[in-house]
Amino acid sequence: MSKEPSFQSASWRRLRRNKGALFGLVIIAVSIIVAVFAYFIAPDPSPFANRIILEIGGNKPGFKQDFLLLKKDKNVASTSFFNRLMNGKEDPYYYVPIDSHQLIGDSVIIQKFIDEGLSERQAFVKDQLASSPVINQRFILGTDKFGRDIFSRLLIGTRVSLSVGLITVIISLTIGLILGSLAGYFRGRTDDIIMWFINVLWSIPTLLLVFAITLALGKGFWQIFIAIGLTMWVNVARLVRGQVLAVRELEYIEATRALGYSHMRAIVRHIWPNIMGPVMVIAAANFASAIVIEAGLSFLGIGVQAPQPSWGLMIKENYNFVITQNPMLALAPGFAIMLLVLAFNLLGNGLRDALNVRGKI
């Protein structure tokens, strides 16, 4: 006699057959790997990929430039693996853009690049330079107006988008599950009070509410995450309330009351596991929405602050290039936002079908 597959294995098989959901899952997995190892992948591993070289600002994708590596006046300590993983490593050299160089004895004669068609002759002794004093670097997506590598900042900016989505989902699920469960399980006055509070917050535009919370908490990396999370729990609470209202009348919940189990045990051990399907779907949607909201707030200047790279902030810093010679500076982070949001939406749709979630969420 063949054994019936479990609900989890059957759901995973249905999810694997959904090509859109698998595409979204692959994009999300790649984004997580990039976010974790961003400082090892990025051509510019300095903190926040903030290596400013004003002479080469605003160049197009594929731009190449020779650099002379000039030692800094101070000794730059070596960086441990963990510190580089989290914060990058400080450059031990100044990157001096050059047009040409010539080795003469113990000296290096260079034509320092200042602007197109403009250079300056300078000389350095080898003791002032790296062991390999001249390197050629290619900027895959070009450089912004400060001469920073767009590709490196794009990779490190992945951390912000995934972090804001994760923290927002944790906050929204925590508050939404608790308040929605209390309202649906106890009903009566508890339900009336919680639903009144939910309806008040529901009537306030999301961006306006985020502005208010941001003004109260201040601008910053963590503040914006908390602000977005505190505005996105309402739809989770409404969904959970409806699910709990339906489940609480089923026989197995009546049995928990007859056996004398506490309300908390009935909710956590017996109701929550059976309503997680719709909750997972709405969590994926909230993840995508949080990425878009963070990008919008950073574009408006009240989200993540410079020099921390954020895709929305990168669009703000380079949007004027869209109508000039180099639109890719603003389009690249825009495409990244679109791709990651699409991935979470496709995954959410796949979860909805795989978990047999019925009704409109």
UniProtKB/TrEMBL annotation:
Stretches of the chain forming a coiled coil according to its record: none
Membrane spanning residue stretches: 21-42, 162-186, 193-215, 221-240, 279-304, 328-348
Pfam families reported for this sequence: BPD_transp_1, OppC_N
CDD domains: TM_PBP2 (cd06261)
Compartments in which it is found: Cell membrane
Membrane topology per record: Multi-pass membrane protein
Transport listed as a keyword: yes
Main location, first listed in the record: membrane
SUPFAM superfamilies assigned: MetI-like (SSF161098)
PROSITE patterns per UniProt: ABC_TM1
ABC transmembrane type-1 domain mapped to chain residues: 158-348
Keyword vocabulary terms for this entry: Cell membrane, Membrane, Transmembrane, Transmembrane helix, Transport
Gene3D superfamilies in alphabetical order: MetI-like (1.10.3720.10)
Entry similarity comment: Belongs to the binding-protein-dependent transport system permease family.
PANTHER family xrefs: D,D-DIPEPTIDE TRANSPORT SYSTEM PERMEASE PROTEIN DDPC-RELATED (PTHR43386:SF1), OLIGOPEPTIDE TRANSPORT SYSTEM PERMEASE PROTEIN APPC (PTHR43386)
Name the UniProt record assigns to this protein: ABC transporter permease
